[in-house]
Amino acid sequence: MERILGARKRIALVAHDHKKDELLHWVMTNKEKLADHRLFATGTTGTLLEQALQLPIQKLLSGPLGGDQQIGAMIAEDKLDILIFFWDPMEAQPHDPDVKALLRLSATYNLPVACNAATADFMFAAPFMTEEYKALQTDYSMYLKRKLPEGGGDL
Fold this sequence. Notes:
Layout: E1 2-5, E2 10-15, H1 20-29, H2 31-34, E3 38-41, H3 43-53, E4 57-59, H4 67-76, E5 82-86, H5 96-108, E6 113-114, H6 117-125, E7 133-136, H7 141-144
Parallel strand pairs: 2-3, 2-5, 3-4, 5-6
Antiparallel strand pairs: 1-7
């Protein structure tokens, strides 16, 4: 199976509080490249970036208030192509389980993820950023067809 990422990517921009300045610096450096794509961001980060970039950003809820889950749902529903998530590895977050789930979904759906400026720079330097890309997808049909225990289920 494969998923087609168009030439105009749908990019989510997320940053923990102590990484917002770093993300802001990175997006300002890459403003021209970002202008060619559709941008999404969680609450506070989205407002900050939209003011600095003067580009439209579809803002979701704040991360701890559900924005991380909204991004996760967008990944699962094939509504995002790239996640740029500058997360703070040195500080525990009240929504750490949400962060882990977001990274797990990105891996599950083979979504490109940059967790720091260096990785984002490499990603944006790749020719695939401005071209169509066919991302291979794992076939989970056997998982979905597995036999569930009696009286059990996903609850």
